Amino acid sequence: MRRELLRALGPGVLFTGAAVGVSHLVQSTRAGAVYGLALAGLVVLANLVKYPAFRFGPMYAAATGTSMLEGYRRQGRWALVLYGLLTLGTMFTVQAAVTIVTAGLAGALFGLDASPLVISGGLLVVCAGLVATGGYRALDKVGKVIVAFLAVSTLLATALVLPRIAWSEQVWWPSRFEPADIAFMAALVGWMPSAIDVSVWQSLWTLARGSETGGRSEAKASSVDFHIGYVGTAVLAVCFVLLGAAVLHGDGAREIPERPVAFAALVISVYVDALGEWSRPLIGGAAFATMFSTTLTVVDGFPRAIAVLVERLRSEETPDAAGTSDRTPAYWGALGVLFVGSLVLLGVFAESMKALIDLATTLSFLSAPVLSFLNHRAVTSADVPEGARPAKWLVASSWVAIALQAAFAIAFVVLIS
User: Fold this and answer.
1) Cα–Cα distance, 224 to 190 (Å, whole number)
2) Which alpha helices (H) appear in 162-279, and where do they start and end?
């Protein structure tokens, strides 16, 4: 079992690398800065509600040897088309949002004078080169080191600032629901812990991991890998809320700056305030490395999913074959389109980072119930061996989660319109 676990470890870490980025460094810190601990419960709830949809990605891959997109294909061509439309509607904003935050951190850390657009373009070129030369192996190795370092730094910083929080004065649920508050809550939940799209990527990473290690991961080992990544991501999200509440809340720095470099300086200052000035270069490097890992993961994730989507529109998937999809013409074509489209958006939002992030996360929030429903149908279908299907409690919780996500999305549209 230990050997199988070591072989399976990787997709869960990549999930953490994809999630601990904008949703944590920006949105969770912003939640603590503006609302104190009032949104901590919402962060926990979002992680619980999205758990089934994310769990089903690697579960389906381990059980069938095929990606979640094959699960969509078996529901009908309409499911693949719907997924494709949702992906096209979110991919450019997602990539642009994570890249502009990374560019801000790069500018603050290395003292770069170039514009955020130029830095972002350079980062995308570097990421494309890494996935072109290293594929999954590069993602796996880089991700493990970066995630481990940031996790230790964040836990230590959080422990040091806990005494600063006036616990008796905290409220645990928001007391105001103005349109701006509702809009931020939707944006916070949209990528908490990440967009549901990543569940499809997880299934592809699970298969890619199998290709690297020479065999499909056992269901139990895959489950352990997933839970290490998912629980760790949720804990870190709460840590960032605590950091924002302890260091930024009520001191006049309640709003996240619009300009990327100014935001980066603020994030680094949160850690420095907790750990001391000596930590500035280390924390700056860790924050940049974390966002670079997220950018790298997204650069690979969307093209990988689109490449497999194109193949599924043509034919059914051969078990354990999707891990080789990162070398097809469709992958490189999707990577090129993603690069150009993201740069266009960055040109528009280069000086308004917060607006871009809110747009990207809100779009993901609205698409979440649809993708959760498709994942549910795939993993509970007859194509999954009976012994590998989710337990009854997980199926029931999935239905509840889908209903809650749909209700939240409809309520948001009604309240904002």
Assistant:
1) 25
2) 179-190, 197-213, 219-243, 260-275
Long-range contacts of 324-331 (CB under 8 A, 24+ apart): 324/211, 325/204, 326/131, 326/135, 326/136, 326/208, 326/300, 327/135, 330/306, 331/303, 331/304, 331/306, 331/307
Residues 6+ apart with CB under 8 A from 248: 29, 32, 33, 254, 266, 270
For 323-377, the pLDDT digits (tens) are 445 568 888 898 899 989 988 888 887 666 667 777 777 888 888 999 999 999 9
Q: Decide: 58 and 222 in contact? Cβ < 8 Å.
A: yes
| Cα–Cα separations (whole angstroms), residue 11 to 204, 221, 235, 325 | 9, 11, 18, 16
Q: How many domains does the chain have?
A: 1
Query: Using one digit for the tens of pLDDT, what is the confidence trace for 143-171?
Result: 667 777 778 878 888 888 888 887 777 77
What CATH number does residue 151 fall under? 1.20.1740.10
Residues 6 or more apart whose Cβ sits within 8 Å of residue 159: none
322/20 Cα distance (integer angstroms): 26
Smallest CA-to-CA distance from 88 within 391, 363, 365, 413 is with: 363
Query: In whole angstroms, what is the distance from residue 49 CA to residue 56 CA?
Result: 13
Flag whether the pTM goes above 0.90. no
Range of the domain at 399: 2-416
103 touches 123 (CB < 8 A): yes
End-to-end CA distance of the chain: 53
* Residue-wise burial string across 277-307, b where 16 or more C-beta atoms lie within 10 A, e elsewhere: eebeeebbbbbbbbbbbbbbbbbbbbbbbbb
* Alpha-carbon torsion angle 301, 302, 307, 312, nearest 10: 100
Residue 65 near residue 207 (C-beta atoms within 8 A) = yes
